[in-house]
Amino acid sequence: AGGGGGAMGSAAEDGRPPAPERVLFPPTFSVSEIKNKQRRHFRFLRWKQQQRKEKLAAKKKRRKEREALGDKAPPKAIPKTIENQRVYDETTVDPNDEEVAFDEATDEFAPYFNRQTVPKILITTSDRPRGRTVRFCEQLSTVIPNSHVYYRRGLALKRIIPQCIARDFTDLIVINEDRKIPNGLVLSHLPEGPTAHFRMSSVRLRKEIKRKGKEPTEHVPEVILNNFTTRLGHSVGRMFASLFPHDPQFIGRQVATFHNQRDYIFFRFHRYIFKSEKKVGIQELGPRFTLKLRSLQKGTFDSKFGEYEWIHKRREMDTSRRKFHL
């Protein structure tokens, strides 16, 4: 105490103001204990900035060490993600499995994959659709070849399906909406099903996509199906594949992608160009949307007496963040 008083006295004698006492927070102090909202937010931002600086410094240090070691540097560690820590699913499909091959040869999509049928799609809407849903259906019809748009007004789906079968349609797509925004998609494979019901989100029309390309051409696009690994995912992937004709026209350089990640199916439509032997440029054409499977029903659409193969039950199925079904 005496030493501290002497230091303060010498500072006062020199004409300098006394140094402020340093406030030391207890080890268990948390930013959330600050009552003032603005100060709490400011302290949190400073903490995040400090974390970012430390992370960048550690990254630079590791890079310099790798450059110094050269060829002797150890291999880079694989970052841990929810996707690569996925819980093993016993229904994961083995392409060489005889049972899977038998199922593919006898399921509802076998006529398409055996080239016995040509896809013909009817795209319709919920009752009396609004402008955004109408524009989305029109743009979706330019992505899927040989598709026709019908705007439904007071006609039940149970009456539409027999008419579709009579006119040789192979699939029926229904776009549902809520508060003028598309929020659901029903995909029914005709004439025997199955029927999948998806929740739709993050819908972006062409004019809402930055740096979009020109309008898509009428060429048949290529189709990419990513990460549909389980038996359920395999069925859903075959449903999407059966919407497009077999032989893509590569001259159009257009590709439709269904990418499954953590049971969310991201749809993108691109045009690509080969800039060199190693570089490829891509340009999104739109539309884009995200799907989440809610149910898979046997047969065609039947809301009352339909038999379901799979239903998403949140409280029972979403117990682990690393458990996926597709």
UniProtKB/TrEMBL annotation:
Residues 65-74 have a biased composition (Basic and acidic residues). Residues 1-30, 48-78 are annotated as: Disordered. GO terms for biological process: maturation of 5.8S rRNA; maturation of LSU-rRNA. SMART domains: Brix. InterPro entries: Brix, IMP4/RPF1. One of its GO terms (cellular component) is preribosome, large subunit precursor. It is found in: Nucleus, Nucleolus. Keywords: Ribosome biogenesis, rRNA processing. Pfam families: Brix (PF04427). GO terms for molecular function: rRNA primary transcript binding. Residues 119-302 form the Brix domain. May be required for ribosome biogenesis. PANTHER family: RIBOSOME PRODUCTION FACTOR 1 (PTHR22734:SF3), U3 SMALL NUCLEOLAR RIBONUCLEOPROTEIN PROTEIN IMP4 (PTHR22734). This is Ribosome production factor 1. It comes from Pelecanoides urinatrix.
